Give the backbone structure.
Amino acid sequence: MTRLDRMWAQLKARRRKALIAFVTAGDPDREATVPAMHALVRGGADVLELGVPFSDPEAEGPSIQASSERALKAGTRLADVIQMVAQFRATDRDTPVLLMGYLNQIERMGAEPYAARLAEAGADGAIIVNLPPEEAVPLGGALRARDLALILLVAPTTTTERLRTIADAASGFIYYVSLKGVTGADHLDPGAIASRVAWIRAASDLPVAVGFGIKDGATAARVAASCDGVVVGSALVDTIKRLAAEPRSIPAALEKQAAELRSALG
C-alpha cells in the first residue's frame, strides 16, 4: 500500500475528509518552502502539493501566477523542488507529497528520469495540469513502476467518454476542477459540484478531491460534503505573498490557516 493509499484508508476509517494544501515551491525563496510544508502538516494538512514554478502556468489565476514569478526570480527549478521533497522527507515519513506542474517541464528531463528522481526523493506522485489522458501512458507507466501516482484532472466541461479515459489512466485520486477558468476564481456551486462528483464516482473507484475556488473553512466544508478531499491553494499562496518580506513569519501563519481549514472540515 502506498503512502497516498494508506492516507485515504485512514481518513475513510475516521470519516474525515482530506485537506490538500498547495504552495508554490521556492516562494518567496527556496529556504522558505520546507518550513512551510512542515507548518501546513502541523496545522492539519493531509497531503501537500508542491507547485513547480513555470513561466507560463496557463491554468493558474493571478495569485499562483505571481507566486511562480517570485519563485523563478529566486532561482527555483525542477531539480530544486525535488530536493525540497527529499529534505522534507528526512523528518516526515508519512505525509504524501505531490508535485504539480506542466508537461513541458518533464519533457526536458524525460519521463523515466523524472519518475526515478521523484521516487528517490520520497515524493508520492505528480499532477500534470496539461497532460492529455490519451498521452499519459509513458509517464503513467514510469510512475506506476515506482508506486507513484499520476493524478489527472476532470473539468466541468469533460465529456463522459473522456472521463472514462481519465479514469483508466489516473491513480491516487481524481482531481475535479470545480470551476471553468483558472485557480482562485469565485462562484462555487456546491450542488453542481456534488452532481459532478457523483458522475465521476460512477466511472471510477478512486477518491475524488475538489479544487479551485476554495478559499476558507466555510467553503471547504460545503464542498467536502460531497467529495473525499478539498484542495486549497490560492488562499495559502496569498498568505505567503502578504508575508514575503518577513519569511520567518510564514510558517506560523500557514499553520494557523491550515488549522482553521482542518477544523471546518471536522
Summary: The longest strand covers residues 18-24. Strands lie at 18-24, 47-51, 97-101, 125-128, 149-154, 174-177, 208-211, 229-232.
